[in-house]
Amino acid sequence: MITFVVRRLIATVFLLIIVSIITFAIFFLLPKLGGQTTYGLATQYVGRNPTRAAVLQVEHQLGLNQPLQVQYWHYLKAIVAGEHYSAGPHSVYCPPPCFGYSFKSQQPVWPQMVSDAPVTLSLAIGAAVIWLVSGVAVGVVSALKRGSLIDRLSMGTALAGISLPIFFTGLISLLLFSYKWPVFPDVQYVGLTTNPLLWARNLVLPWVTLAFLYSALYARLTRAGMLETMSEDYIRTARAKGLAERKVVLKHALRAVLTPIITIFGLDLGLLLGGAVLTETTFSLHGLGFFTIQAIQNQDFPEIMGVVMLASFFIVIANMVVDILYAYVDPRVRH
Amino acid sequence: MKRHKVLGLAAVGAAGAIALAACGGSGGGGGGKNTSSAAFNAAVGAVYSPSSQKGGTITFDNSSGPDSTDAGNTYYAFNLNFTRLYATALTTYKSCPKLCGDQVVPGLASSLGTPSDNNKTWTYHLKPGVKFEDGTPVTSQDVKYAVERTFDRSVLPNGPSYFATLLAGNAAHYPGPFKHRSKNLMGLTAITTPDSSTVVFHLNQPFADFNYVVAFPQTAPVPPAKDTGADYQKHPLSTGPYKFASWQLNKQYTLVPNPQWNPSWNPQVKQLPSKIIVNLNVNANDVDNRLLAGDIQMDQPGTGVQAAARAHILSNPTLKASSDDPVTGFMWFYYINSKVKPLDNIHCRMAIEYAANKTNLQTAYGGPYGGSVASTAMPPTVLGYQKFDLYHALTKPGGDVAAAKQQLQMCGHPNGFTTNISYRSDRPREPASAQALQNALNQVGIKTTLKGFTAANYYSNFAGVPNYVHSHQIGLAAGGWGPDWPDAYGWGWALFDGKSIVPAGNTNISELNDPQINKWFLQMEQTTDQNQKNTYANDIDMQVMKDAAILPATYNKALLYRSPKLTNVNVNSYYGMYNYGTLGVKQ
Model confidence over B526-559: pLDDT tens digits? Predict the structure, then answer.
């Protein structure tokens, strides 16, 4: 098992390096192939009507005139060993993992991501709990009451949840519950340690909005899985043994259904930890998703690189955890 | 160009010569009448709800954020407005309604600059007794250093470049005071400080508008020992009525009263609220909702409410009475490139001028509340503006197809021609505008292909790169503009002077290089005679339109919601939005 984990960890590092190379190529190599000059790139970061001397100064300062492989090497080196950046009278030390220095905000990228991470963690984990519990519960009930009014109502709602975009449901929920009936007024992120009650109150709408989308998906998956499992022979056997229906459903049927659900849950959560872009934008939550949008709008390559790397890290780690869980459950996977 | 919005209209020239009729009363620290009656546009021509009551909190929301809170590193119009609360430049704009707000007046300096050597040398004397928030006296060296640090574009990239281009001595190669600090600190030879309260600027050419240049907050003093470079934005040392209490990048910053502040330092700003909060990167629709619900008092960018809120406000008489729809001085238009074939032929360009459907362009830019149909290359807010209509934009706003076809005959393409239209695809109104233009041109046989680019690199890599424009046949490019200062030079030099054409980041996308226009700009640099400047302004405007280098779309307007809780609310003509320097709040 330890060998398997170590092997997976090494593979994870390589995977992240490959992601970094691809991302770096997208933002620095492709524009070059498209004819963009380093002078043109530097012009983006010098403000309006710059003098030629100013552009050349920035081009040099940001290292844009160096060969791409050298720029990439500096990028990797900074992640491992940190880097000093000239940002005024004194240079600024960006400790590892240093994901570069933002051309736009003139700040190191990593501390910005660290500062935004609690928002995304709060949002993703809270919503995940809601969607997992509600989605699975609704799915199970729908499967058990197949064809009933409850089933139709649940699946209809689920369909709506999947179909309606978050920027619609989010704004509607704000309009109704923050402005028309101000149950959750002035929604803005408050740190968990600052005021736990306000933290929870202000996150209720984002949690529910985000969970509405995912729980719909999970409800349909659970329902489909339950319907299939409930028709299996071993369920019939369990019933024939005289087991209580509750035990049959929870211990035998649901357990089998949960395996793929947990797998998807791991991946979904990993993806969200890299930033719930739409939810954060709709509710003005300054998390990693919001950070990503800003970085893209500003064409701030170091920030985009940083957030892509972090999101990749979460997804790869989530994959690894799932793989390890599989290996634990099924020893054949280890080989 | 001040980014996003800007503007101005009649201003007093460098000599402060013009008398502005609107400057009459005493509201808001300047001229204009006062009013306490809520009505549509009540704060456009008057100070709404005048009060000297102190205390309370004003909360601003911003769907984006400032380019920097460092006053030496900003170009956004709303931020030039807002930084006056904590940064005092040598000169500033008068706080009063109507055109009076375009008047440049002393800020940190005791009077406007004294020109000498044919406007090549400008001398300013600092007001006595001005201190930083820590009690340290402000000296002329602090002003010199503030300008020096803006030369390092790798650390402070956002502000205007006027000092780098105008100053003499070693300015062309001066790297700023951060690199080789022992050598470069106070090493900018074009600024001298004969004593602790006098600062002298030596220019490489006559420049009569220099009082406007030093109104940029790049001249707000910075003590060298306290400068932290890029991090200075986290707590710029205040010389205004407020100082920073907290700062979180891209999230929020708060200001509290500066205890050192003395109102005599700058009468154009007030110290009324006991706290000012600015929330950044708030969802744009949510900003409007919070504004209408009373959770916040001001939308910081000052560019107007979103479409949903606009419909809500205009359909509700009570809300409408709490709103203003001022002309901002910003303008939307299309550059018509004079080098890309067949638009190098003036008649082909004129065909576009006639064929464009101005009504549809106005609709694309937000309808009548978003702007009025434009017929000139300068908006009515520019000093010296005179109305004219060479291409029937006002008499035939749907387009003059017959005249367009006649011009096509004269340009040798009676059945039309093909070209490309570039626009910023992430600007909400430009795609619709480009589509409207494409449809109108199609009516006369001019076939166009739309090319969308992101706003972030529109000027740096695409429309602002002449080589790219030529190789990709960009005949028309969407643009928007606001002046750096409210006269024709501040509006148009970067757009229309041949010397402003640069290989990247070009703002003269028309590549207009008309010797007569260049000559008028040169003459504007040399005269402080406001009447003469006004004549040049009209001459330039007329000639640009005769050259058919610009297709005017709209003179921008912005529907602003005026929170009933605010006091001293008035639209400043130069900033084109509410004056943030004088606001108070009811308790």
Answer: 998 889 999 999 999 999 999 999 999 999 999 9
A36 and B155 within 8 Å at the Cβ level: the answer is no
pLDDT for res A334 = 59
The minimal CB distance from B454 to the residues A115, A185, A299 is found for A299
Report whether B214 contacts B145 (CB < 8 A). Answer: no
Question: What pTM value is reported for the model?
Answer: 0.85
For residue B29, pLDDT beyond 60? no
Q: List the one residue out of B511, B351, B342, B517 whose CA is nearest residue B440.
A: B351
Q: Would you tell me how many other CB atoms lie within 10 Å of the CB of residue A56?
A: 17
Short-list B210, B500, B252, B505, CA closest to B218? B210
Q: Rounded to 5 degrees, what angle do the CA atoms B301, B303, B304 make?
A: 115
B356 and B410 Cβ atoms separated by less than 8 Å = no
ipTM value greater than 0.95: no
d(CA A12, CA A28) in angstroms, rounded, equals 24
Q: What is the pLDDT of residues B173-230, one digit of tens each?
A: 999 999 888 889 999 999 999 999 999 999 999 999 999 999 999 999 999 999 999 9
Contact B581, B555 (CB under 8 A): no
Cβ separation A48–B1 shorter than 8 A: yes
Beta bridge partners of B561: B323
Q: State the maximum Cα–Cα separation within chain B, in Å, rounded to a whole number.
A: 73
The 8-class DSSP code of residue B304 comes to: -
Q: Is B457 on the interface with A (CB under 8 A)?
A: yes
Q: Contact, B435 vs B364, CB < 8 A?
A: yes
Q: Which residues pair with B554 in a beta bridge?
A: B332, B373
Beta bridge partners, B376, equal: none
Contact A48 B173 (CB under 8 A): no
Interface of B with A in 156-215 (CB under 8 A): 157-161, 164-165, 172-173, 175, 177-179, 181
Please, what is the Cα angle at A228 between A224 and A230, to 5 degrees?
Answer: 115
Using CA atoms of A231, A236, A239, A245 in order, give the dihedral in degrees to the nearest 10. -10
- Answer whether B504 sits within 8 Å of A88, measured CB to CB: no
Min distance B20 CA to chain A CA atoms (Å): 31
Amino acid in the structure at residue A107? Q
Given an 8 Å threshold on Cβ–Cβ distance, is A48 in contact with B157? Answer: no
Q: Is the CB of B286 inside 8 Å of chain A's CB atoms?
A: yes
- Beta bridge partners, B254, equal B246, B277
- Furthest-apart CA atoms within chain A: distance in Å: 86
Kindly identify which residue of chain A lies nearest to residue B232, measuring between CA atoms. Answer: A88
Amino acid at position A48, single letter: R
Task: Report d(CA B138, CA B146) in Å as an integer.
Answer: 12
Q: Is B504 on the interface with A (CB under 8 A)?
A: yes
How confident is chain A (335 residues) per 10-residue block, as mean pLDDT? 81 88 86 79 75 80 85 89 86 86 84 92 94 93 90 89 88 89 86 92 94 91 92 90 88 83 86 85 90 85 88 85 71 60
Residues B291, B297, B301, CA angle at the centre, nearest 5°?
A: 80
Give pLDDT tens digits for B100-123.
888 999 999 999 999 999 999 999
Two tokens, residue B133: 């928030």
